[in-house]
Design brief:
alpha+beta; Alpha-Beta Plaits; four-stranded antiparallel β-sheet; 4 helices; 31% helix; 34% strand; elongated
Length: 147
Amino acid sequence: MPSYELFLVLRQMSRPELVSALKRTAESILDKGGIIRRLQNLGSRALPYKISEQGLVHREGTYFAINFDAAPAKISDLKEEFGRDVDIIRRNVYKMEEPEKYECTLHEEMLPPAYRKDVQDMIEIAKRKQKPKYNYNSGLDYYPFQK
């Protein structure tokens, strides 16, 4: 199952209401066969602009990030369910990409540029892209009328 990250902005409410809204969100993920990996509280703050959601205007919100694994077919169901929740102002689900594995050693980095593998590859590419010198069928490798 691929990993996803859910960013939530919940309306400003008391702590018990906030807990119940998070429980509903987590239970809906678990009911769809998902596995919650991490839940982060990013704090309460003013929204960047006023947001009208479910007929109410919101100026402050509480931000949360939830990392979870779920089947790709269930993501649209989750988005629809979160859209109907009156406590959620904004919700975005992003697929998390695996970080690219890059192996680097200090010895390679300390070599002079001409001896590094990546620099040698760039030099080879540049040699392949060089244009041949212009020849006027004169047998010369330069243009004789140029100063």
